[in-house]
Amino acid sequence: MQTADFRRYAHQLADWMADYFENIEQYPVKPPVQPGDIKSQLPAGPPLEGEAFEQIMADFEHIIMPGMTHWQHPQFFAYFPASRSAPSVLAEMLTAAIGAQCMIWYTSPAAEELEERCMEWLREMLALPAGWAGSIQETASAATLAALLMARERISNFQVNQKGWYGQPRLRVYASEHIHSSIPKGVRIAGFGEENLVLIPTDENFAMLPDKLEAAIEHDLSLGSQPACVVAAIGTTSSTAIDPIRPIGELCQKYGLFFHVDAAYAGTALLLPEQRWMSEGMELADSFVFNPHKWLFTNFDCTAFFVKDKKLLTDTFSILPEYLKTPLDQQVNNYRDWGIQLGRRFRALKLWFVIRTYGLEGLQARLREHIRIGQWLAAEIEKEPDFELLAPVPLNLVCFRYHPEGGYSEEQLNRINEQLLQTLNDSGKILLTQTKLNGKYTIRLVAGQVETKLEDVQNGWRLIQEVARGGMNDR
Residue 389 — very low, low, confident or very high, per pLDDT cuts 50/70/90? Predict the structure, then answer.
């Protein structure tokens, strides 16, 4: 492709993206396709000769777009948000154009130093402990795995890295029964074994019970096992439950356990001083993760991972072959030593664009509005006799179900709500997800895109009521 052609097509794509931003609500939230529908429209083999950009773009419009789920749609209330904002998209374009490999300072000095500064900004914005060091990881799952590996090496004095598990005691990891699925996956990958993940009971708000945690630790000690790590959540995926950080941290101090805090979604709310009750006691933690790509309007992927002990982190991961040595290694942060990946994208650029475009006050204003919208919906649900909240609403995730009159059993209510969710999602007008809380099929609604308005949630809530009351209780 010649530069002149690139320039012309790039302008066309910029117009396409701007139109998409403005008209996204015209698409169905979830595409009405079946497995194989998209693949069947694609040739079985690659083209032998190059094809015109116009033809590629036409196929994008007619084959790919009809099969896309539109995460930025105003009626997308599923999972947690996958952020997108105009400044972040623009930065991603620059990142792609530069095409840098940012594994060490020497390969891209500006990328390393911008990342270092952005992590310092985030540390201040979230009021995290001043001595902590941060880096950008690809996902919270990868950052949590890094934390588990740090815990493993600290408790074994780096013997597992050097010799494997031979001669090591049975190491135990503790987490809430509502913890994210990345924790059991990380426990598997790190070699602890999923049988050594101890799930701790929770209270009526689905938060970990510290007394149950201590009882589990004491029980394992009595059996000769070695407690190694606790993972707590600031905002579980099912219900945004908030584990009590200080009492859990105090237990970790008492028993010498590594303490990781998973705040993948809700950590962004720590930008708000009024929400920092959630992180009270954070100075007792060893590591902390949250995702700017969820609720801080930064395109996927961008995960902020902070640690108390930078040397423990780098000693866990650092391997220095001759071909990666540089004269400045002792003067800089080489982020290839801060996690699993060697190769690294220039993720800090989009985060920098977002923070500078909106400013702290602009980001805070949007977060407060999203929380206000969540509280509005919770209040509306409580007004309706045939709907009920199934979890507290500390932020903007609302967990509820339809509960019509008629003496239905829990099993019947589960079926009714499962059918309600499927009907809503199949309509293409809205997208929601589910969980189970205390055995109850629970519908989750969370609104947190940068452009989310109260009107969007009001429209979604009206649709939910109309579909539920339009015969769902007869199913």
Answer: very high
Half-sphere exposure of 341 toward its Cβ, with a 13 Å CA cutoff?
16
CA pair distance 73, 26, nearest whole angstrom: 9
Q: Taking a C-beta distance cutoff of 8 angstroms, is the pair 281, 110 a contact?
A: no
Task: State the pTM of this model.
Answer: 0.92
Give pLDDT tens digits for 76-132.
999 999 989 999 999 999 999 989 887 877 788 898 999 999 999 999 999 999 999
- Looking at residue 319, its amino acid is I
d(CA 345, CA 262): 23
Structure tokens at 72: 């930025």
Q: How far apart are CA 373 and CA 452, in angstroms?
A: 9
Structural domains in the chain, CATH included, are 3-78 (1.20.1340.10), 100-345 (3.40.640.10)
End-to-end Cα distance, the chain: 57
Residue 178 DSSP SS3 = coil
Do residues 294 and 395 lie in contact, with contact meaning Cβ atoms separated by under 8 Å?
A: no
CA 369 to chain centre: 20
Query: What average pLDDT is seen over the chain?
Result: 93
**93, 239 contact by CB (below 8 A):** no
Provide the sign of the torsion angle of the four alpha carbons 153, 156, 160, 163, taken in this order: positive
**Residue whose C-alpha is closest to residue 448's, from 240, 273, 279, 144:** 240
pLDDT in tens, 228-237: 999 999 999 9
Cα-Cα-Cα-Cα torsion 22, 27, 30, 36, nearest 10 degrees, comes to -120
| Two tokens, residue 409 | 């059993």
pLDDT band at 473 (very low <50, low <70, confident <90, very high): very low
pLDDT of residue 321: 64
Tell me the per-residue pLDDT of 233-275, one tens digit each, with 9 for 90 and over.
999 999 999 999 999 999 999 999 999 999 999 999 999 999 9
Structure-block tokens of residue 144: 């949590």
What are the structure tokens assigned to 62, written together?
């007619």
Helix (H, G, I), strand (E, B) or coil at 323: helix
Tokens of 355: 């923070």
Phi-psi group of 439: left, alpha or beta (phi > 0 → left; psi -120 to 50 → alpha; rest → beta)? left
Flag whether pLDDT at 26 surpasses 70. Answer: yes
Q: Is 74 exposed, middle or buried (0-12, 13-18, 19+ CB in 10 A)?
A: buried
* Distance (Å, whole) CA 255 – CA 94: 48
Q: What is the pLDDT of residue 474?
A: 45
Tell me if 279 sits within 8 A of 306, measured CB to CB: no
